[in-house]
Specification:
This protein has a domain at 2-96: 2-Layer Sandwich (Phosphorylase Kinase, domain 1). It is 39% helix and 12% strand. It has helices at 2-10, 58-68, 115-134, 151-166, 172-183, 227-237, 259-270, 277-301, 316-328, and strands spanning 19-22, 30-36, 39-45, 78-82, 92-96, 193-194, 203-205, 213-216, 223-224. A hairpin with a 2-residue loop joins strand 2 (30-36) and strand 3 (39-45). It is globular. It comes from uncultured Mycobacteriales bacterium. It holds the Pfam family APH. This is Acyl-CoA dehydrogenase, putative phosphotransferase.
Length: 332
């Protein structure tokens, strides 16, 4: 069904019989390479059986990509949105395929082997985040994309609700972290576009220039909100060599700057006050713990492209404990 649809939409019969390949690495929305003699594109759709369907809105992803195209934030060009669920069982969209390096727990042989190149990767990642937070939502058609007023309170309610819906077993550290976050909720400033899941393995690095981000991916959690939430979550995923590894990252390799360097560069680029950042890091740990719980739930429901039990559930408690430790820095 997909091939004839693409051939008709794009007026090119070469799309009639495409090959479709699932892309490994995604844990939430599903990503596929769709290839034909006419070229190769990327298809994004919700999980096969979404546990929480409201978290997988393809229209929002397509909208933010369309809005950011042409800004200093590099994004894949959106090509086609199909809001009709009848064709593939759910709405989906297609976007440009951007070739490059996605750095997860290792780097390709010969790529960014020097400390200078790893510093360049770090600077590029922070600089693109600063560029995103500098975008005027109204100027790119995103004035109504979210409600920045009360953003943190709503986010905390949302993720606490997700946790209550997804929880299985007794994990008191997660409940304690949620209560502590609520007790120390910062005032919500600003209201720029926030990515919601900004980290190194959600960007494509230029294959010839490690110091250039070719594209930012995975916009499913984007909205208008508090920019420090993006920075806090980035720090959760950023692993200096002496950090406890809850989420393995290539940034544990020698040559990658520590977390303080990211914070300093972001503050210098944006001029924002980052004194409350420990709360946001703690919230990032809480959010990631709930995301992991959702992945585990989808694995159990058979809704993932790869439903292998990889022990992710055992990371939920340690993530919450790490969040509580980060939050303690705020109240010292």
């Amino acid at each position: 069904m997909l091939g004839p649809y693409l051939a008709a939409e794009w007026g090119d019969g070469r799309w009639r019989e495409p090959t479709v390949e699932v892309v490994a690495g995604g844990r939430s929305n599903l990503t596929y390479f769709v290839s034909s003699p006419a070229g190769s594109v990327v298809l994004r759709r919700p999980p096969l059986r979404a546990v929480r369907p409201t978290a997988h809105d393809m229209t929002r992803e397509h909208r933010v990509l369309s809005a950011l195209a042409g800004t200093p934030v590099p994004v894949p060009a959106p090509l086609l949105l199909c809001p009709d669920p009848d064709l593939l069982g759910a709405p989906f969209y297609l976007m440009e395929r951007v070739d490059g390096v996605i750095a997860r727990d290792r780097l390709p042989t010969g790529y960014a082997g020097s400390a200078a190149e790893r510093v360049a990767i770090t600077h590029a990642l922070v600089d693109v985040l600063a560029e995103l937070h500098a975008v005027d939502p109204a100027a790119v058609g995103l004035a109504g994309f979210g409600r920045p007023d009360g953003y943190l309170a709503r986010q905390l309610r949302r993720w606490s609700g997700e946790w209550q819906a997804l929880r299985s077993g007794d994990l008191p550290a997660v409940d304690a972290l949620a209560e502590e976050l609520a007790a120390g909720l910062p005032a919500t400033p600003g209201g720029p576009v926030v990515h919601g899941d900004y980290r190194l393995d959600n960007v494509v690095l230029d294959p010839a220039d490690p110091g250039r981000v070719a594209a930012v991916l995975d916009w499913e959690m984007s909205t208008l909100g508090d920019p420090l939430a993006d920075l806090g979550l980035l720090l959760v995923y950023w692993q200096p060599a002496d950090a406890a590894t809850v989420t393995p990252s290539v940034t544990a390799l020698p040559g990658f700057p520590g977390r303080d360097a990211l914070v300093e560069r972001y503050a210098a680029r944006t001029g924002r006050d980052v004194s409350a950042l420990p709360w946001y890091v703690a919230f990032g740990h809480f959010k990631l713990a709930v995301v992991v719980a959702g992945i585990v739930a989808r694995q159990r429901a058979g809704a993932m492209a790869d439903n292998t039990d990889d022990g992710l559930g055992a990371r939920i408690g340690p993530l919450a404990e790490a969040g509580r430790a980060a939050l303690a820095e705020t109240v010292r």
